[in-house]
Specification:
124 residues; alpha+beta; five-stranded mixed sheet; 4 helices; 5 strands; 24% strand
Length: 124
Amino acid sequence: MDYYRDPNLDGKYLGTITSDFVKIADNLKEASYLIRKRGFSDYPIFPISKEDISIGQLLIDKRELGTKWNYYVTYIDEFVNLKLIDESKVDNFISTYKNPDEFCCLFVVDKEFTNYLFVPYPID
């Protein structure tokens, strides 16, 4: 898998995210498609965390599907409202946002690491 590379993204994150992503990629891709098709946003974001967080709505509970991470769903407007993306930086975010038909925008939230990660969906 070709991830958006971040020097802080070490093996412990890549391994658990990769093993989860294989299991739930279709769910995330479908949610992304529906968010865009229904006109909510062109920029869906999937916050993931091992703990409960208050960003977005829970989409996949790690206890239900045996994943290591909980997967939430939201989009750029909530990130601006929560000040996770500064209004003056929205254009920067949009310019780095990858094609949502090909890539999933994850927002990884952990005690030691918080950052965006673009993961390619598996090719059918």
